[in-house]
Amino acid sequence: MKIDAAATAPRTDGAGNIEILTAAAECFTEQGFHASSIDDVARRLGATKGRVYHYYRSKTDLFFDVHREGMRRNFDAVRPAMKLPGTGAVRLAHMLRHHALSMMENLAFETVVVQGVHMHRLGATTPAQRRTLAELMTIRNDFEALFKGVAYEGVEDGSLRIPDVSIAIKAALGAINWIAVWYRPRLGETRDDREILAEKLVDTQMSGLAART
Fold it and tell me: Which part of the chain engages DNA, per the record (predicted)?
């Protein structure tokens, strides 16, 4: 079942509280899910843990909404690139580049997205939590489907040479998502620096996918 992109939006209880999500994402990134607590999130906020509990009943619920917010940012970054002019190969490169920039500029959130995959694989959760993780994985699959659709168009217009689109896109996205593991911003790093890095990463991926002329 396909989940609409609106489902990626975190619960906001009418007013929203991105500050809580940001503080939680930073805690989960720096300490890991199991070592982080609601107290840690509250301390980072400079607030009482009652403020966090007003929105979230548990650390796991908070983790899930950080994951949703990370995916929402990914969708927002990639969708405009899909509509740019050019062949399937050109648009796929734009999408991967925008995704790489989103990974770097939303690093704490995207690290939680990666952690969420591991939680799903391990399955060490309650049935209700597994259902939520399954929903989040469906959202991730929908995100992957955006890239597959453009890749198929590239195969049809001759700009891409891909024997198996599904495997190729999983490999390309895996390389970009791995940014969450190895990338850390350097002191004084600028947007231009990140764009150069994104370009290098995507050029490496596209060199194996583009049709030879």
Answer: 37-56
Number of H helices, E strands in the chain: 10, 0
Q: How many CB atoms lie within 10 A of CB 205?
A: 21
Contact present, 6 and 73 (Cβ < 8 Å):
no
pTM to 2 decimals? Answer: 0.86
CATH number at residue 186: 1.10.357.10
Determine the pLDDT at residue 7. Answer: 46
pLDDT tens sequence across 75-87: 999 999 999 999 9
CA dihedral defined by 99, 29, 61, 3, rounded to 10 degrees?
10
Q: Give the three-state DSSP class for 210.
A: strand
- Cα separation values, 160 from 25, 88, 191, Å: 37, 7, 29
Show the domain range for 197: 58-206
Give the whole-angstrom CA distance, residue 48 versus residue 169.
44
